[in-house]
Amino acid sequence: MNGAINPWWVFWSAAGVVIFAEIGCLARTSVLVARYGQPWVVFAGTLVGTAIIMAVGVLAGEAVRRLLPDAALRWVAGGFFVLFGLLVLFGKLEG
Q1: What is the pTM for the complete model shown?
Q2: Whole-number Å distance between alpha carbons of 48 and 50
Q3: Is 85 within a domain?
Q4: Is residue 41 a part of any domain in this protein?
Q5: How many angstroms separate the CA atoms of 92 and 95, rounded?
Q6: Averaged pLDDT, 35-60
Q7: What is the pLDDT of residue 95?
Q8: Residue 59 vs residues 10, 27, 54, 56, 62: alpha-carbon distances, Å
Q9: CB-based contact 93:84 (threshold 8 Å)
């Protein structure tokens, strides 16, 4: 593949990001299992909910990518990164 990105690399990169991002939600999932006593139902609900929110994120990201040139997108993303960093730094958001 001349310069093409391997789709499996993209798949596993995305899966890895989601897995690490959702580690914090394991406590919430455990509480739901403890409360309802139905681990497979909670697992299925968590899986479907995560898939839906990821699909929304992918579709929104694709829409933004089509609207903004790459350079503008980098500036906007960098601006949000700095903004949220400053909000956390000055105690307006909890990190």
Answers
A1: 0.59
A2: 5
A3: no
A4: yes
A5: 9
A6: 88
A7: 53
A8: 16, 28, 9, 5, 5
A9: yes
Q: Is residue 65 part of a domain?
A: yes
Identify the H or E element spanning 7: helix 7-21
Q: With beta carbons less than 8 A apart as the criterion, state whether 50 and 22 touch.
A: yes
Assign 93 to helix, strand or coil: coil
Instruction: State the pLDDT at residue 41.
Output: 92
**Number of domains, the chain:** 1
User: What residues make up the domain containing 35?
Assistant: 7-69
Q: φ and ψ at 37, to 5 degrees?
A: 65, 25
Report whether pLDDT(24) > 70.
no
Residue 44, Cβ density class (10 Å: 0-12 exposed, 13-18 middle, ≥19 buried):
exposed
In a domain, 2, yes or no: no
Query: Do 21 and 4 contact (CB within 8 A), yes or no?
Result: no
Task: Please calculate the CA angle 19-93-49 and round it to the nearest 5 degrees.
Answer: 35
Residue 40 is predicted with a pLDDT of 92
